[in-house]
Amino acid sequence: MNPTFLGPLRLHTQLEQWPLTMPFRIAGYTFEMIEVLVVTLQKDECVGRAEAAGIYYMKDRPHSMIQQIESLRATIEVGLDRNALQKLLPPGGARNALDCALWDLEAKATGCPAWQVAGLDRPRPIVTTFTCSADQPAEVVMAARSYRNPKALKLKLTGESIDVERIRAVRESLPDVWMSIDANQGFSRSFLESLMPILVEEKVALIEQPFPRGQEELLDGFQSPIPIVADESVLSLADIPHLVGRFNMINIKLDKCGGLTEGLAMVRAAAEYGLNAMVGNMMGTSLAIAPAFVLGQVCNVADLDGCIFLKADRAITVQYNDGLVTCPDGLWG
To answer: Catalytic: 256?
Structure first.
């Protein structure tokens, strides 16, 4: 099912700013506030809504996203379905906001929840990683221990010698937690090679995006005992074939690929190429996490903690309990 919502279809766009509780540091960036684009589509009495933050490292920002959408207002308001949208806009935040708003509108108009429209089983709570900013080791431990009964952690690293202290400090404090690391393109090959014995010793389960996008050949011939995840190296379906033999898993983010429609297609394509799938997020409110939660039902790993870093959230929020994330009815889809 993928109905075309014929006009008059009312489009509303709005930029919002959501402050973080404290600065969030990764390799090369520090975030103090998240700006998002909220798209609302209305057909008769039914309203679909979604949120996107874009891709900061691709200069895909909410201000440019809103311009993309507004330039197509007449086309959108005449009528649109998700298949047509894939041709109307490229992958990125603008398409994500529209795509997920269409999913939400369809759920409201038909009475069928988004997971059912996607042909999935009823959603279950899923384990999510909880992220620790690249701070001083004692602060990283404090952040890790602040999470209530975490089952999985992700440590942001920077390619500096202090990374070893960060890893060892968290492992000493939480000896049994599942742990991954995320370099956000910040490693050199020599640094990864030197770090690998420590990663093995400290039982790190995944290594995410060690090298910069466009330098994937640095993984050629690299025999890693730990699975390596492509994040910045995989934006959309088109990138997947080039990852085979270098990566073991892809991190699908709806802001990168342009929405839940392509996200679901990427899970299927990854399996065809022998790759596992992870679902992540670009940080945002619970409205951004909700469609990613649907995608997470068919992924091997989920990183859906983005809204916990906000000072405030939506009126209806995703819920975190005992290391799991779940999405209540009424939030989206």
So the answer is: no
